[in-house]
Specification:
The protein has about 400 residues and is an alpha/beta fold. It has helices spanning about 50-55, 75-80, 95-105, 125-135, 180-190, 200-205, 225-240, 285-295, 300-305, 320-330, 355-365, 380-385, and strands spanning about 20-25, 40-45, 45, 65-70, 90, 115-120, 140-150, 155, 160-165, 170-175, 175-180, 210-215, 245-255, 260-265, 265-270, 275, 335-345, 370-375, 390-400.
C-alpha cells in the first residue's frame, strides 16, 4: 500500500520519456555524531530519508524511485519506508561514486530514459526544484541545480589569509542532478577508479555538456546537528505552524468462548470465557486500532493484518495498535485523545479501568489524561446482553501538520 500515490500526470507533460529518481543513502553520516546513520534519524516525526523519498514518490514527473543504501542498513530502511511502494533497495559500495554506479546499473533494465540523482540527506527538496530539473532535461543531456556564491572567498594557509579567490563564475552545486540515463551510465563506467566530486563532474569529464538551473536555499544537505535544527525550522515554516484535527471511529465484536484467556486493552482479565479470534481477539484494541487508522485515512486493521495471514495467529493485539500509532508519527502527527467504550454484561470493567488506561497509554506512548475508557451494557438485549460476545467502539482524535499542497506539475 502506498500512502503517497502520485498525482495524475499534468497536461503539460507531453513526452513519453520515463524518469527515475535515484536516492543515494549509503553513507553513515558520522559528522552528525549519532549512533544511527543520519538518514534514519527523526526529522519532525519522520525518518529523514523517508521525507526525501516521499518528495519524489509524490511527484507526477517521476515514474520510478530507486534507493541505494549501505550494507547492514536493511532493517532501518524497511522501518523508514513502511507503507511505501518501492522496489528493493540496491546495496551501495565503499564510496558515493560506487553507490551511484550500482544504482544506475539497476535502473538500466527498467525502461528508464532519464534519471535524477539525489542525496538522501537533502530531505527538504521541493517539488518546484524537481520540476525545474525535469523540464531542463527536455532540452539538455545533463542538468545541475546551482546557487550563486554570495560571500567573498579567501585562500587560507595555517589559519592565515594568503589570498583572494575570484568568485566570478563559481556556483554551489546541489542535487537532484538530472541526466539521460545511457549517457551518465557510460560516463560512470569510464570514471571507474577515478575520484570525482559529484555526478556533474563525471559528466563533464566524459564530455557531456551540463546546464544549470536555479537551486533552492532550503535544499541543503543535512550534515551536522545544526542542520537538523534548521531543517525542523524550515518544515515548521512550510506548515505555517498549523495543525489540522482528524477524527476516526472504530467498532469491533468477538464471540465469547471457553478455553481462551480474556484479553481487554492488552490485559488478561479474569473471566470464565475468552474471546474467539485469529489473534488474541482483544476487541478493545482492535476498535482503537481501526479508529486511529480511520483518522489518517489508512484503511482498517484487516488491510494491514489480514486474518488469513498465519503470522498474526495468536499474537498480542498491542502489535496492531503500536503499528497504527507509528503511522501517525510517520506523518509528523500526534494522537491527542482516544475514547473507548466496552460493551458487555460481564466481566465488570470498572475494577480494571485504570490499569487498562495505563496500558493503552503505554502502548500509544501518550499521556494518561488523553485516554478515556468506559463500559456499558445493553440492558440484556442482543448478543452482548445474552453474554454471547463483547463489543467495543472507539473514537480517536489525531493532529496532523496542515502542509501546503505539493506542486506536481513539470
Amino acid at each position: 500500500m502506498n500512502p503517497l500515490p502520485r498525482q495524475p500526470t499534468t497536461p503539460e507533460r507531453q513526452d513519453t520519456m520515463r524518469t527515475a529518481a535515484l536516492i543515494v543513502a549509503a553513507g553513515r553520516g558520522t559528522r552528525l555524531g549519532a549512533d544511527t546513520p543520519k538518514q534514519y534519524l527523526d526529522l519532525l516525526g519522520k525518518p529523514l530519508l523517508r521525507r526525501t523519498i516521499e518528495a519524489f514518490v509524490s511527484h507526477a514527473g517521476i515514474d520510478h524511485v530507486q534507493t541505494v543504501i549501505g550494507a547492514g542498513q536493511e532493517n532501518l530502511y524497511r522501518a523508514a519506508t513502511l507503507g511505501l511502494d518501492l522496489p528493493p533497495p540496491v546495496i551501495g559500495g565503499d564510496t558515493r561514486q560506487e553507490s551511484v554506479a550500482l544504482g544506475l546499473a539497476a535502473l538500466a533494465g527498467t525502461g528508464t530514459d532519464r534519471v535524477l540523482i539525489h542525496d538522501g540527506a537533502r530531505a527538504l527538496v521541493s517539488a518546484e526544484l524537481v520540476s525545474r530539473v525535469c523540464r531542463a532535461l527536455d532540452d539538455h543531456p545533463a542538468v545541475l541545480p546551482a546557487l550563486p556564491v554570495v560571500d567573498s572567498l579567501r585562500r587560507v594557509d595555517n589559519d592565515q589569509v594568503s589570498g583572494v579567490q575570484d568568485r566570478t563564475g563559481l556556483v554551489r552545486a546541489q542535487t537532484p542532478q538530472g541526466f539521460h540515463l545511457d549517457a551518465i551510465l557510460a560516463a560512470h563506467r569510464r570514471a571507474t577508479g577515478q575520484e570525482m566530486t559529484d555526478d556533474a563532474a563525471i559528466a563533464v569529464a566524459a564530455g557531456l555538456p551540463v546546464t544549470t538551473v536555479p537551486g533552492d536555499e532550503d535544499n541543503f544537505k543535512i550534515t551536522v546537528q545544526e542542520d537538523l535544527a534548521r531543517a525542523e525550522a524550515v518544515l515548521a515554516l512550510r506548515a505555517g505552524g498549523m495543525m489540522e484535527t482528524r477524527t476516526g471511529s472504530g467498532f469491533d465484536v468477538h464471540r465469547l468462548v471457553t478455553g481462551r484467556p480474556l484479553m481487554l486493552c492488552g490485559l488478561a482479565i479474569p473471566h470464565s470465557h475468552g474471546l474467539a479470534g485469529h489473534s488474541d481477539a482483544d476487541v478493545a484494541l482492535h476498535a482503537l486500532t481501526d479508529a486511529i487508522l480511520g483518522a489518517i485515512a489508512a484503511g482498517d486493521i484487516g488491510d494491514h493484518f489480514p486474518p488469513t495471514d498465519e503470522r498474526w495467529r495468536g499474537v498480542g493485539s498491542d502489535i496492531f495498535l503500536r503499528y497504527a500509532a507509528g503511522l501517525v508519527r510517520l506523518r509528523s502527527g500526534r494522537i491527542t485523545s482516544i475514547d473507548l467504550t466496552i460493551i458487555c454484561e460481564a466481566p465488570k470493567v470498572k475494577p480494571h479501568r485504570e490499569a487498562m488506561r495505563t496500558r493503552v497509554a503505554d502502548i500509544l506512548e501518550i499521556d494518561l489524561d488523553r485516554v478515556s475508557i468506559k463500559a456499558t451494557t445493553t440492558e440484556r438485549l442482543g448478543f452482548t446482553g445474552r453474554a454471547e460476545g463483547i463489543a467495543a467502539q472507539a473514537v480517536a482524535t489525531v493532529a496532523l501538520p496542515a502542509e501546503p499542497a505539493t506542486l506536481t506539475s513539470r
